[in-house]
Design brief:
By secondary structure, the chain is α/β, with parallel strands linked by helices. The protein contains 13 helices and 22 strands. It has 3 domains: about 60 residues, MurE/MurF, N-terminal domain (Udp-n-acetylmuramoylalanyl-d-glutamate--2,6- Diaminopimelate Ligase, Chain: A, domain 1); about 180 residues, Mur-like, catalytic domain (UDP-N-acetylmuramoyl-L-alanine:D-glutamate ligase, 3-Layer(aba) Sandwich); about 130 residues, Protein-Tyrosine Phosphatase, Chain A (Alpha-Beta Complex), CATH 3.90.190.20. The N and C termini lie far apart (about 55 Å). About 45% of the residues are buried.
């Protein structure tokens, strides 16, 4: 991190400074390296001594954790000349970030948000990783309601804003798809004059002082088990990643960085991870999150990858859909039936709606109930998709599938 004087912490809370400056920021004492600042978020005050033992230059027990992290991150942001790219969207934010990071790293000193560090804690922590040589910083901005993206963008001050797509996500908080557009549009509103907005083809942009790059349906091809988009060969085959790759390439162009001929992307965990199962079976672990659009895409990918294997879908609740939730679950169940899913295990109360869509299946109240049913459900040679909203915790089911014997 670009070094900061400990005086930047004045007025933020209880400070213990053992050095005049600090060179990193952590909220987990186990990650402290010598010279770091430890910010005690939540129960973090219980681990101040641990942070100091590990070599923390200073510790901060803040009056208000988010405001303290934002103050420190803003001080780092003020001292960097790196180009900042901020990515938001209803789905594909993390994958687009991962793709852009893989592309950008080939020709520029790049940092990118870890995993899904995309909220009022994660965004400041990413900014606090900026160093003097950093040329590109790639952020992911989450939305849990109106104003959150605006607040994060005001802190990050990106020159390039990417909206991957708009879909029925967080409807409980913003009521409608128009509300989603409005919330995602806060990123475009935050761009400076002369900045670049990379948006879907039909996304409304009222500003005339930014460059607008619209992403339509990109052309792509499969070559030797890889996907070629925009002249670049990528190490994925999932159809839904093509749109993410097109957005990432547009951001790369806006950064004025060259397109490599080939790149391998290291995607964040539980996002379409594939693993062999007994008897020639296949696990597609997409357990990190879910919404109606990504569910359909994942089911289509299951159908594509399954070939002549039996198709099994283990699907949990899709959260934050508000009053439209039951109907969206029924529609996903109908899509599963149309795509030839042989059996579906619905996990969670809302997930019962999948079975109303006509797909053969069974129900589990929770992850523990689902784990008990795996031995009967999954056979050797099956292709299995595991997907749900993050709160359901279906990664435990995916892990169990790789460990337990299956019935014949």
């Amino acid at each position: 991190m670009i070094a900061l004087e400990s005086s930047v912490l004045d007025g933020l809370g209880q400070v213990e400074a053992r050095a005049g400056r600090f060179t990193g920021v952590q909220v987990d004492s186990r990650r402290i390296a010598p010279g770091d600042l430890f910010v005690a978020v939540g129960r973090g005050s219980e681990f101040v001594d641990d942070a100091l033992t590990r070599g923390a230059a200073a510790t901060l027990v803040p009056h208000e954790a988010f405001a303290a992290l934002a103050r420190v991150a803003a001080a780092v942001r003020e001292r960097t000349s790196a180009r900042i790219v901020a990515i938001t969207g209803s789905m594909g934010k993390t994958s687009t970030k991962d793709i852009l990071a893989a592309l950008s790293t080939r020709s520029a000193q790049t940092i990118a948000a870890e995993a899904s560090f995309n909220n009022e804690i994660g965004v400041p922590l990413t900014l606090c990783r900026l160093e003097e040589p950093t040329e590109v910083c790639i952020l992911e901005l989450a939305m849990r309601g109106f104003g959150q993206i605006a607040e994060l963008a005001a802190l990050a001050r990106p020159q390039i804003g990417v909206v991957t797509n708009v879909g029925p996500v967080h409807l409980e908080l913003v009521d409608s798809l128009d509300g989603v557009v409005r919330a995602k549009g806060e990123l475009i509103a935050a761009l400076p004059a002369g900045g670049t907005a990379i948006v879907p083809e039909d996304f409304p942009v009222a500003r005339d002082d930014v460059e607008v790059v619209r992403i339509g349906v990109p052309e792509a091809s499969r070559v030797d088990g890889r996907t070629v988009v925009g002249g670049v060969s990528f190490n994925f085959t999932a159809q839904h990643q093509i749109q993410n790759a097109a957005s990432a390439l547009a951001a790369l162009d806006a950064l004025e960085l060259p397109r490599p001929q080939s790149v391998d992307v290291d995607f964040a965990r539980w996002r379409g991870e594939e693993q062999e199962l007994p008897g020639g079976g296949l696990l597609i672990n997409d357990a990190y999150n879910a919404n109606p659009v990504s569910m359909r895409a994942a089911l289509a990918y299951l159908a594509e990858r399954a070939g002549d294997r039996r198709r099994v879908a283990i699907l949990g609740d899709m959260a934050e859909l508000g009053r439209t939730g039951p109907e969206y679950h029924r529609q996903v169940g109908a899509a599963a039936s149309e795509l030839g899913v042989d059996e579906l295990l619905a996990v969670g109360e809302l997930a019962r709606g999948y079975l109303e869509g006509g797909v053969p299946g069974r129900w589990a109240a929770n992850v523990h109930d689902a784990l008990r049913q795996l031995g009967e459900l999954v056979r050797p040679g099956d292709a299995v998709l595991v997907k749900a909203s993050r709160a359901v915790g279906l990664e435990a089911v995916a892990a169990a599938l790789t460990q337990i014997p299956t019935t014949t």
